[in-house]
Amino acid sequence: MVNVAGRSPRGSSRAHETREAIVDAAERLFAEHGVGDVSNRQIGQAAGQANNFAVGYHFGAKADLVRAIVRRYTTETEGRRLRMLDEMTDSGDLRAWVSCLVRPATGHLDALGVPSWRARCLAQFNTVPALRQIIVDESVATPSMRRTLDGMFRLLPGLPPEVHAGRGDMSRLLVVHTLAERERALHEGGPTPRTTWEATALGLIDALAGLWLAPVTTSTVTTRTDPPACVD
Amino acid sequence: MVNVAGRSPRGSSRAHETREAIVDAAERLFAEHGVGDVSNRQIGQAAGQANNFAVGYHFGAKADLVRAIVRRYTTETEGRRLRMLDEMTDSGDLRAWVSCLVRPATGHLDALGVPSWRARCLAQFNTVPALRQIIVDESVATPSMRRTLDGMFRLLPGLPPEVHAGRGDMSRLLVVHTLAERERALHEGGPTPRTTWEATALGLIDALAGLWLAPVTTSTVTTRTDPPACVD
């Protein structure tokens, strides 16, 4: 893993190498079998640990292992995003801010090469409420993300709170699952709508700009009813 | 389950009731534990079947069970969509076509009540390439979906093929995972950005219209490279 942000020192102790090997194995097994379907014992064996308790010794709870995987991602994307923000020329261009959301991720996954498992892990963690909070804490609440979202939302004044929240959730789901599906397709040799990660980034940036700039249709419906056309 | 489209006859034989109980159990267990993490034996036990081979006897492969779950969804949504199409007044309005994509699903999930597991099952099936094809065959290749997509795409001429394919995938991921996340939040008592399924539909329709109408930025990048701001 290229060390962009200068964290997690290289060429370090045996313990560090063991931890890295465990995170490598966990990332692959979580992506392939599901985070809820992989035991510490399986991770330890895949990491070449003779001691069945190695994973528990180095990481304790599974949440700590999830956090370590998320931090690998954040270490990479945070450095990329901070550089993009420092080089931004037009802070009045919504696509420039959206690009700072998307390109650090696509550039990182591009650099990881094929196969990678990180995007599929993040997509899974997103579907588990308890683990999603780790992603929010580790990768959404970072300085570069705050700067990006602040800059983006300054250009989107007056959105009703529930629309703002709904579009935020839709944006997260769109990016996370688009990247995970492409990663899986590249790994399994399946078809990919875009030929490169850069083209994937462009497609996501256009889509997200369209999503956030879309006119808001306000509902007058306050009770749980079907739209007229669906009433039996 | 309300029988909108008139399929899967009611008040039927013991075998039919057993099959329904097995599909009920499979839907819940797949949503809660993952389709790859649930055995026929577990499904049979949850369905109150003393015979460990009941699931295999009634459904054979797991794919047949997945198909049965998808058909429950399609039976409902197909009827709702056909009625919406028949009552459509302005075929030149993109939001009207997008509404025919979204509202049959939100209306059906609304009618299912809380808790439901169907949206989470469909989201999971979508992430497994082998199972995703079942969804395409059973729910995307239906008469109402063909009419809807044809009508929608007539209003979106001249999109480059890779943009068309990319936005199609993004639309599918956006709808499927937004509905699954809301279903999970309603089940677990978590926060939901929109107060009703109808408001959720409106938010999705606005977002999808914005996504499809967004200006296309064409990429000149043909090799796997990072955008300039990300080059180390």
UniProtKB/TrEMBL annotation, chains A, B:
This is TetR/AcrR family transcriptional regulator. Pfam families: TetR_N. It comes from the Bacteria. The keyword Nucleus does not apply. Residues 22-69 form the HTH tetR-type domain. PANTHER family: HTH-TYPE TRANSCRIPTIONAL REGULATOR BETI, HTH-TYPE TRANSCRIPTIONAL REGULATOR RUTR. Keywords: DNA-binding, Transcription, Transcription regulation. The lineage of its organism: Bacteria, Bacillati, Actinomycetota, Actinomycetes, Streptosporangiales.
